[in-house]
Specification:
This protein has 183 residues and is α+β, with helices and mostly antiparallel strands. It contains four helices and ten strands. The strands form two sheets. Strands 1-2-4-5-6-7-10-8 form an eight-stranded mixed beta sheet, sandwiched between helices. Helix 1 packs across helix 2.
Length: 183
């Protein structure tokens, strides 16, 4: 797998290292939880409290075989990240975060396209998969505009496992979204 940084537009895409773990945790937390997340549109602050990830989860994403945590920098600062995990001829996309103040300007679209390109070219992935909390209709619609399809395949939220947050409401679940990756 290519590990050299790739530059596109004004962004640098590179594999995260263990030294990036704390910065990635802070970025992911700022994009989804707490008051800082309200500066962007991806906030989960109304449905979940607590952490979105932790240093151990980030290190696992960085160090696991068949996994890659993509760090995205602009002017030397971490502005986005995502995890790719190889699953046979598909890739799982997760831990996607864009700095709240940078949301809404096309950065997320660029990062998602780079993740799809990376999965296709590095692993020969023919499909990208992800799960999204079902009540996140605006986020699901954003992915649908980028070619993802709802599958109707739903899995329960891990209530009681605070590694994924503390739910503020009952009935949370994840839906699988998929997108074919053109060769």
């Amino acid at each position: 797998m290519d590990t050299a940084p790739r530059t596109a537009d004004d962004l640098i895409y590179r594999n995260a290292t263990a030294a990036d773990a704390e910065a990635v945790v802070a970025l992911v937390q700022s994009a989804y939880r707490g008051e800082s997340s309200r500066a962007g549109w991806t906030t989960e602050a109304d449905i979940l409290d607590g952490q979105r990830t932790d240093p151990q989860g980030v290190l696992e994403a960085i160090e696991s075989p068949g996994s890659r945590l993509l760090a995205v920098e602009r002017d030397g600062a971490l502005v986005a990240c995502c995890r790719l995990e190889r699953q046979g001829d598909t890739a799982y996309f997760g831990m996607f975060a864009v700095r709240p103040g940078a949301q809404g300007a096309g950065l997320g679209r660029k990062v998602l396209a780079e993740a799809e390109r990376t999965a296709r070219e590095s692993w020969g992935a023919r499909e990208m998969r992800m799960t999204v909390i079902t009540v996140r209709e605006e986020l699901i619609a954003w992915y649908e505009r980028r070619g993802y399809r709802r599958t109707g395949e739903v899995s329960p939220f891990p209530y009681g496992d605070e590694r994924f947050g503390v739910p503020r409401r009952p009935g949370l679940a994840f839906e699988l979204l998929v997108k074919p990756l053109a060769a």
